[in-house]
Amino acid sequence: MQTRELGRTGQQVSALGLGCMSMASDYAYGPSDEREAVATLHRALELGVTFWDTADVYGFGANEELLGKVLATRRPEVFLATKFGFVADGAGGAKVDVRPERIAAACDASLRRLGVDTIDLYYAHRIDPAVPVEDMVGAMAALVQAGKVRFLGLSEASAASLRRAVATHPVAALQSEYSIFTRDVEAEILPTCRELGIGLVPFSPLGRGLLTDPGPQLAEKDMRRALPRFGAEVGDANAPLVAGLRQLAAEKSISTAQLALAWLLAQDEHIVPIPGTKQRKYLEDNAAAASVTLSPDEQQRLAALLAAHPVVGARYGEGALRLVNN
């Protein structure tokens, strides 16, 4: 597994990370299996996929606890990222709370569940327009000074918020959705990251599965049931794009997932995607993408395919979209 620098921090991380959201929750991408999830984490280290991403809201703590079982014996091998900012809303869902007065307690709770002394990369999961970015990042910076956190990050933040944040404390990474299916960051956010020396960590780099299966069968509790792009009519509209990707991947003797990840890696040297999975077979397929090189002709064919088949459907519902790019 190749490595890449995280922004301009000097810190090297695996060129492809591992999104761990689905490992301890039936809400994310269907039923979970703890034994397979743990085996997937160990296999990731064998493959050199050492950049792991979780959050306190995933399974409301259960995901961090699961990772903690592996970290107990393999902590030095992992560059560990987690996030704070969502809390239970009392109705089975979550709401944003990034008030400075609760950040230290949120960090301590994550450290306890993960069973570690230090978090390598600590993200604010969302920006709350009601909380000044400077105040939030200032409270996060205090965690760095206390030795509990090494680097700071933001998630789904606007270019303006990034600028305000770095004026308070260096920001190592921005985590945002970015894939062949979701390219919003290319307009303003990616150029801002380049200017400010912030690494971009794309989540859902495979379009939440749509890039590999345009019509997946979703379990009853699967969160994707609430996403506009997973409606039957939208899947039909996006099928020609997926078919084109599959054809190009077949010609290159790689999987569609590997093609999509190689495309992302080619967009910038400081992009580190974190495809999520809880199964070893998908982890192994994804990890192999780090060795895939796209020729200029293949990149041109991909660009033509994207131009011919614009993606249909929003990535989030209206309520979730209001929490993006603040």
What does this structure look like?
Helices cover 39% and strands 14% of the residues. By secondary structure, it is α/β, with parallel strands linked by helices. A 7-stranded parallel β-sheet has the order 3-4-5-8-9-10-11. It has a two-stranded antiparallel sheet with strand order 1-2. Strands 6-7 form a two-stranded antiparallel sheet. Helix 2 (62-74) links the parallel strand 4 and strand 5. Helix 1 (34-47) packs parallel to helix 9, helix 3 (100-114) packs across helix 4 and helix 7 runs antiparallel to helix 10 (296-308). The radius of gyration is 19 Å and the shape is globular.
Using brief descriptors, characterize the structure shown.
326 residues, 11 strands, alpha/beta
At a glance:
The chain has 326 residues and is α/β, with parallel strands linked by helices.
Quantity of strands, as a count: 11
Q: What is the chain-wise order of helices and strands?
A: EEEHEHEEEHEHEHEHEHHHHH
Helix content percent band? 25-40%
What percentage of the residues does DSSP assign to strands (E)? 5-15%
Termini Cα gap? 34 Å
Strand order of the largest sheet: 3-4-5-8-9-10-11
Q: Supply the number of helical segments.
A: 11
Mean pLDDT: 89
Give the biggest beta sheet: 7 strands, parallel
Poorly predicted sequence stretches spanning 5 or more consecutive residues: none
Roughly how many Å is the radius of gyration? 19 Å
Computed structural class: alpha/beta
Anisotropy-based shape: globular
